[in-house]
Amino acid sequence: MRAGELAALGTAAAWTGSSLAFEAAARRIGSLSLNFLRVTMALGWLTLAAWLLRGQALPTDATDAQWGYLATSGLVGMVLGDLCTFRAYVEFGARRTMVVSTVTPILTAALAWVFLDEAVTGREALAMAVIVGGIMLAVSERGASADGDARLLRGALLALGGSLGQAGGLLLSKRGLDGYSAIAGTQIRVATGVVGFALVLTVAGWWPRLRAAVADRPAMGWTALGALFGPGVGVTLSLYAVTHAHTGVAASLMALPPVLVLPLVIARGERVGARGVVGALIAVAGTALIALA
After folding, report:
1. What share of the chain is helix, strand, coil (3-state, %, to 5)?
2. Residue pair 55/47 in contact by the 8 Å Cβ criterion
3. What is the pLDDT of residues 44-60, one digit of tens each?
């Protein structure tokens, strides 16, 4: 397995841990406050990492083109994509949103083929299909509830919008990171996310609720932990992955958190049925196909 694919697996592991931390925080302060706080804290973590590892705290060495691609990537992937995804959790449910999100690697590979002329081998295409199929089986275990058709359609469209945002964000990141630092590139993306979410909070009149959220110490602890492993370590590894592996392959490996989280939720007492276990094994088999390539 090559460095880019290992980075993609590292991304999946980091995002698995961050999702549990963010789940704990969101229950206390809500998703909109959480989104702004997580990117703000992540920017602090990344600035410290850039100063220690690059000797340069801010990405002032990026070209105008790199700023343009990476800032647009932040708006598309971290602001618009995440807003759609988090709203889909409310309208559609987390599990069904994860089912729709399994199309992200396919969308990413298609966009990379059209805009970057980036083809995948037959073995990589098979591995992607196996991983996506395994994830879809694992996260679709529970049956649908009797929600209204309009709400289900709205939720499905929001979930698809989140997947498109993530795929577009990865593609733009790959363009912007050509020959540039993954840490500094992530700083630009996350800084754009801070500005974007600040505008959303202003339009929504959310600042009083944000001040109340900041006073919740347990939520701040979970948010800081999630920001370190999610927008911090995870996003940095994801940018390294898409620049050192086929974009669609990297996206498939980065889509593994719903499977990786299964042992953790079992450990805390949640029930996972046969479909979840079989789906996880199928996804691991797809990962092995890439690892043995």
Report:
1. 85, 0, 15
2. no
3. 999 999 999 999 999 99
